[in-house]
Amino acid sequence: MTTSEAVLLVLQAAAMGKGGEVFVLDMGKPVKILDIARDLIRFHGLEPDKDIPIVFTGIRPGEKLREEILTAEEGTEATKQKQIYVAKISKRFSSQDLEIKLNELANIISEGVSSDTIKDMLKGIIYDLESPVAGRENS
Asked: Taking the model in full, what pTM does it have?
């Protein structure tokens, strides 16, 4: 998908929004970076791995090979635009629930805990949908 096509999808999704929806955009099938690199080298009249070497450096800290956008339980619903879907968010935090979690986070930070502990707590706030405070509707 070209940049202009992706921008068009984002603008269309924004126009569809009524407030609070999470849109999932179908950007087409994934393309391997290696294929793009080889195509760019050939585009300039050169031969990959002969004229220009392709070097694999590995994954950098924080990089992912795949991104799971939604859990299997959540899924999506179709919209009128075939490449735009609305996420079915099964559970949400209320503003009070979020405030409780942020206060807990502030407390552990003030105790001088390790950065790993803080990261784990943040992950819990973001990903722990089974929390007893999750599941209530936004207030």
From this structure: 0.50
